[in-house]
Amino acid sequence: MKPDLSTIEGRSAYHAELRRVAIWWRAAGFALVLAGVIGMIRYGRGPQGLFDSQGGIVSVALVTLGWILLIAAIVKRTRHHKARMAEPPAP
After folding, report:
1. Phi and psi at residue 6, in whole multiples of 5°?
2. Rounded distance between C-alpha atoms, residue 37 and residue 81, angstroms
3. What is the spatial distance between Cα 87 and Cα 62, in angstroms, rounded to a whole number?
4. Which of 32, 51, 66, 87 could form a disulfide with 2 if both were Cys (CB 3.0 to 4.6 A apart)?
5. Residue 56: how many CB atoms within 10 A of its CB?
């Protein structure tokens, strides 16, 4: 059933529903990006210094994987929204 967006309560309920979509993917992606950035600060010695150590390479991989998860969560949320808006309205 299509969400009722004509009332404030309906909009806030739908907004809460959208926030719950792929919440673990977003949290995991954010945590990986944060861990990767901390690793980059720890192991990086300039732009080329990241690839001189194993820790720098792992940090870049963590940031990349984190962004992949975040983008996947955005795609999943957008698909959920499109599917909900395509449902027939409530009688």
Report:
1. -85, -15
2. 31
3. 38
4. 87
5. 19
Taking the C-alpha atoms of residue 23 and residue 84, their distance in angstroms, rounded to an integer, is: 18
* Tokens 């599917």 -> residue: 83
Q: Give the span between the Cα atoms of 5 and 9, in whole angstroms.
A: 8
Q: What is the pLDDT of residues 35-75, one digit of tens each?
A: 999 998 888 776 677 777 888 889 999 999 999 999 999 99
How many C-beta atoms surround the C-beta of residue 21 within 10 A?
16
**Backbone φ/ψ region at 22: left (φ over 0), alpha (ψ -120 to 50), beta:** left
Q: Take residue 54 and report the two structure tokens written for it.
A: 């194993």
Please say whether the beta carbons of 69 and 35 come within 8 A. Answer: no
In the numeric block, which tokens belong to residue 42?
């720890």
Report CA-CA distances (Å) from 74 to 12, 20, 48.
Answer: 19, 12, 31
pTM over 0.70: yes
